[in-house]
Every structure is written in structure tokens, then in C-alpha cells.
């Protein structure tokens, strides 16, 4: 059996922009989910050195290489993420900040993966840790869902954006909403408004024009796109409503950040 490999690299907070996340990766031996002593110590050191005042939440995702059937690899990837989560919690990391723990199963190899097959597979047997920076927008405004929310809290999701004049969800936005759907399925008590926003529109217009429909309802259509996507991911429609707020609430961070959707908590 090959000796396990660990690459556990974290980049300084100073390198992160408003949209970036700090990422760590733990690699595993073939068909194993145990974390050996060297890897465990690296995770422990990470927890001890981490400035938790800068961390809003952590997401843990597990993967396997392409060998074996889907069901077996899904379970193996779940065991891997739970092994890493256990080390984090046992060494003092706040459990409530670990908002997603998900095994994703196999990572298929394609012609564009690059490198030798053995190298590709070794990199696919892993757990990724995604760390979300602490919200910097003020009280009641967050950049991810929290363990507890108050009515009136706003969740501004940094990776849900739209192209200019469009209400169509981008691939990146759908990936972010997939994560949000998992969180909402575990927080069934929360009810919320989905609020769409636009940029680049004169003040005398309440909304912008949606290129696809030719209607001046772009912010509404953006919120509706998120609403329909969450329904497709089994979030109960009775928990949420959607509305368009036009260009009334700029974040002051640039046009691309105003082409967005937020969640507004109405019941907790």
C-alpha cells in the first residue's frame, strides 16, 4: 500500500477578496478514510492557528477516485468528511460553524485532467475544506447562513451573481445554490424572502429591463429564478416568496455586486 500523501496548504487572509474562500485539502490512500497521525496533526495545527474571529463558516466536501461503484464511493466520501469533521470538533473548532458536511462520491477522469492516471487519482481521493470569511457588512447582514438567525437578517451570498441584463442563473450561481439548498433542508424552521437587485439603472426607473423577456422586471425575474431553482432542489415553496427591489440598495462595491440576490429572514 502506498504511503498516504498530505497537502494541506492555507493562504493568508490578506490574499482573499470579498468573493474568495480559504481552502485546505487532505488526501487519502486508496479505499481508506482513516486520517493518519501526520495528517491529523496538520488539521490540529490548523485549528490552533486559525483566527476564528475572521471565520464565518466552514464547508467540508469529500471525494473518491473513479474506481468502484457509485454507492460505495458515496459512502466512502461521507466517511472521509466525517473523519475530518471529527478532528476539527475534537480540537475545539465550533461545530455550529461547520455548515455543510457532504460526501460527493467519485470524481471521473477525463481527457482534460492532465498528468498521469495515478497522480490524478491520488488528487481525487481527498477532503476539501472551504472557509468563508466573516461578514464585513455590519450587524444583521451576513455572507452565509448562520446557526441561528433573527427576523430581519439579510444573507448576501457572494457567489450568486448575474450577467448584465440577465436573470439566467450562471453555472457558478447554481453551484452556490446547491449548497444553500442543503443548508435550508436542515433548517426547515426558517422562512425568507428572496430579493433581487440590479445595477446601472437611472434613479427614475424602478427596475431594469430583462433582455430575455423585454420587461422592466429584471430584479423580480432574478429573484424568481432563484425561487424556482430552490424548488427544483426540494426546498418547500411555502417557506419563501420572491420580490424585486430594483436599484434601491447598492452595496457600494461595484456594479457586478449589485447584480445579485439576497435572502431576508421573515421567520426563524
Q: Strand arrangement, largest sheet?
A: 5-6-9-7-8
Q: How helical, in percent, are the residues?
A: 25-40%
In total, the number of strands is 9
What percentage of amino acids are in beta strands?
15-25%
Helix/strand/pairing category: alpha/beta
Describe the largest sheet.
5 strands, mixed
Question: Could you give a short description of this structure?
Answer:
The protein has helices at 37-49, 70-90, 117-124, 171-186, 218-232, 255-258; strands at residues 22-27, 55-64, 98-106, 126-133, 141-142, 154-161, 191-196, 240-244, 260-267. It is an alpha/beta fold and 268 residues long.
Question: Can you describe this structure?
Answer:
This protein is an alpha/beta fold. The protein has helices at 37-49, 70-90, 117-124, 171-186, 218-232, 255-258; strands spanning 22-27, 55-64, 98-106, 126-133, 141-142, 154-161, 191-196, 240-244, 260-267. The chain has 2 domains: 13-133, OmpA-like domain (60s Ribosomal Protein L30, Chain: A); 141-267, OmpA-like domain (60s Ribosomal Protein L30, Chain: A, 2-Layer Sandwich). The protein contains 6 helices and 9 strands, in the order E-H-E-H-E-H-E-E-E-H-E-H-E-H-E. The chain starts with 21 loop residues before the first strand and ends with a strand. 29% of the residues lie in helices and 23% in strands. Helix 2 links the parallel strand 2 (55-64) and strand 3. The protein is globular, with a radius of gyration of 20 Å. Strands 5-6-9-7-8 form a 5-stranded mixed sheet. It has a 4-stranded mixed sheet with strand order 1-4-2-3. One of its GO terms (cellular component) is cell outer membrane.
